[in-house]
Amino acid sequence: MGKDVIVALDFKSGKEALSFLDKFTGRKLYVKVGMELYYAEGPEIIKEIKKRGHKLFLDLKLHDIPNTVEKAMAVLSRLDVDMVNLHAAGTIDMMKAALRGLTREDGTRPLLIAVTQLTSTSQERMTEELLIDEDIDKVVIRYAENADMAGLDGVVCSPLEAGKIHDACGRDFLTVTPGVRFDDASRGDQVRVTTPAKAKELGSDYIVVGRPITQADDPVAAYDRCMKDFVEV
Ligand SMILES: O=c1ccn([C@@H]2O[C@H](COP(=O)(O)O)[C@@H](O)[C@H]2O)c(=O)[nH]1
């Protein structure tokens, strides 16, 4: 599996997102459209970004009863996206239903991955607020195994967990990892974080990077720094 940097386009409008992409003249990126941008612009922004030749991960993190998720995924399957996701906490039945909904009549579908535990969640919060009385690594691995059992392509996790997930679910099971910061940067609301270089060392397949690129003084230089540390040998 080839490694890549996925840029999180967390912008409030399509205009802002597209003018950000214009800075990368002629380059084709892998980008992520999340709730903020999708709720603001709907499917039109997906069409615009794909028209420009970028790969696209639609990060809507579905989590509902199996029937609802299956129907929602059937709608998303009509969009020209490369990857979509849901919360593994919705159970194996929900993930199987999602896969059914996402699979088109001709058998094709975007990649489907499951969020394990959000990278903003700490061990302490998970135990005290969510009452999950287990080691967070163990929970993340169990959710990954559930996603694997349901037939999904991989998970969203911290880069810190990527190696253990590959050990449990195999090298081809994708680890898509937000929670990435340069050594000299603020973590913001992220908790389980590491650098692009360390993420590479730990076996992450894709790093997802938002603010360290989008809010940098020079976003193209910040993206190139991620590519150099994570992708290039
Ligand atoms: O566990 C998760 C799942 C998704 N995300 C998303 O990734 C980006 C990270 O942005 P940064 O600005 O680099 O923190 C953001 O769009 C999140 O919604 C995540 O961070 N953790």
UniProtKB/TrEMBL annotation:
Active-site feature positions: K61 (proton donor)
Domain Orotidine 5'-phosphate decarboxylase intervals: 4-226
First-level EC class: lyase
EC number: 4.1.1.23
Residues in the signal sequence: none
GO molecular function terms attached to this record: orotidine-5'-phosphate decarboxylase activity
Record has Lyase as a keyword: yes
Keywords: Decarboxylase, Lyase, Pyrimidine biosynthesis
The reaction(s) this protein catalyses: orotidine 5'-phosphate + H(+) = UMP + CO2
Pathway: Pyrimidine metabolism; UMP biosynthesis via de novo pathway; UMP from orotate: step 2/2
NCBIfam families named in the record: PRK00230.1 (NF001273), pyrF (TIGR01740)
Biological role stated in the UniProt entry: Catalyzes the decarboxylation of orotidine 5'-monophosphate (OMP) to uridine 5'-monophosphate (UMP).
Subunit structure, as described in the record: Homodimer.
Protein name per Swiss-Prot or TrEMBL: Orotidine 5'-phosphate decarboxylase
